[in-house]
Design a protein that fits this description.
Blueprint (H helix, E strand, L loop, with lengths): L2 E3 L9 H13 L4 H8 L3 H15 L2 E6 L6 E10 L4 H8 L5 E8 L4 E8 L3 H13 L3 E14 L7 E2 L4 E4 L1 H10 L20 H12 L5 H8 L3 H13 L4 E7 L8 E10 L2 H11 L5 E7 L4 E9 L3 H13 L3 E16 L7 E2 L2 E2 L3 H14 L1
Antiparallel strand pairs: 1-8, 2-9, 3-5, 3-6, 4-5, 4-13, 6-11, 7-8, 10-12, 10-13, 11-12, 14-15
Helix pairs in contact: 1-2, 1-3, 2-3, 5-12, 6-10, 6-11, 7-9, 8-9
Length: 373
């Protein structure tokens, strides 16, 4: 059965907007001319729709890095705090300069954090988290080493062009999951190592692309105080050729007007085959934002973006997968996006072509908190 979601037409996406979102993800926001040609739409009309998406659907152009090839290893941290100390936990998680993402959550856990830790500093990060848990106000700190993340940009797969409404064919997706064939993207495969392949210019380019992947190379050159030719060389022969940059993350509130929430799920599977089927079935689904595999495990972290009324239908579908023996278990929590921050790679700690990890500094910050309390 297909679940339709009706909304105010003024606030909902039109089919041309959805096509523009798809094209931005495919060609990148710096290739408006190519996007215009592919959509058979004048450049002015494309730009008008992009501006409309910015003003009405919070459109943003972020960039995703393949941290593995710049010597950084991803880890997802879940932690709880005593009531009244949520802000303390939130700030303590940022004491480590290698944080990439921190978000408060509704109910438990109280906070979610994602780090990109220099390879070889895993024990130091684990010690940091252990000291964090020793604070009387903090408890149940869990961490999961992961692969890099696979972004999933909005597609028209579940968008009905005729009615210009989102549809949610959960029964069809259930059937798809059980028989899906495909290969995992490289971002969801356990890497064999974490080579540091970047130099200082590469890191600075990547930092700028993370903030805004629509930025022009000449703007980056101006910021770095070097020639455009030099930036182009590093961008083409290092950043792109060596796969340090995964691609654009086109973020838009495409369910605006539908009371949508953002959830973080952890799915556990009994075998790799079922894990792969499930992950591949989500690659083009509009309710998925990002996915990451737990290193060495058949577990998947997924950020889900859904209209609130569809959560029950999604959970019911997951229950069917569990009863079928396909999915082992899962957990999820609601993110509070009003208390969520994203940070670029800590470029200021990249010196002499390697990462400086100030372990003692991070531990001292935690000790200071303990003394102040």
């Amino acid at each position: 059965m297909i679940k339709r979601v009706k909304s105010n037409k003024y606030k909902s996406l039109r089919r041309t907007h959805v096509r523009v979102l798809e094209g931005l993800a495919l060609y990148g926001p710096r290739n408006v001319s190519k996007l215009s040609a592919e959509l058979n739409m004048p450049r002015g009309a494309v730009r008008y729709r992009i501006n409309h998406l910015r003003s009405h659907f919070s459109l943003r152009f972020l960039g995703s890095l393949y941290h593995t090839y710049i010597g950084l290893r991803k880890v997802v941290v879940l932690a709880e705090s005593k009531p009244g100390y949520e802000e303390l936990l939130y700030e303590c998680l940022k004491f480590n300069d290698y944080w990439l993402y921190v978000s408060q959550c509704i109910a438990t856990p109280k906070c979610l954090a994602i780090y990109g830790i220099p390879s070889g500093k895993e024990k130091e990060l684990e010690e940091f988290l252990g000291k964090l848990e020793e604070l009387d106000q903090v408890s149940n700190v869990r961490f999961f080493w992961s692969t890099c993340f696979q972004n999933v940009n909005a597609t028209s797969e579940w968008f009905d062009d005729t009615s210009e409404e989102w549809v949610f064919p959960w029964d069809s997706w259930l059937k798809e999951v059980l028989v899906k064939k495909g290969e995992l993207p490289y971002t969801l495969k356990d890497p064999s190592g974490y080579p540091q392949m970047a130099d200082w210019i590469d890191i600075m380019i990547l930092k700028e692309l993370e903030k805004d992947c629509a930025i022009r190379l000449k703007e980056i050159a101006k910021k770095l105080g070097i020639s455009l030719q030099r930036v182009k060389y590093h961008f083409e022969n290092h950043v792109i050729k060596e796969k340090m940059f995964e691609g654009p993350q086109i973020l838009a509130e495409h369910y605006t007007g539908l009371s949508a929430d953002t959830y973080y799920f952890r799915f556990v599977f009994k075998n790799h085959d079922d894990f792969t089927k499930f992950a591949c079935s989500l690659i083009k689904k509009p309710f998925i934002r990002v996915m990451g595999k737990v290193y060495g495990e058949n577990q998947l972290f997924v950020q889900v973006y859904l209209p609130r009324q569809q959560l029950r239908n999604f959970i019911d579908t997951l229950s069917k997968l569990i009863r079928a023996g396909f999915l082992d278990t899962y957990e999820y929590f609601i993110q509070d996006l009003t208390k969520t921050e994203r940070e670029t790679i800590p470029y200021q700690l990249f010196k002499d072509n390697h990462w400086v990890y100030e372990h003692k500094v991070y531990l001292e910050k935690l000790r200071s908190v303990q003394i102040d309390l």
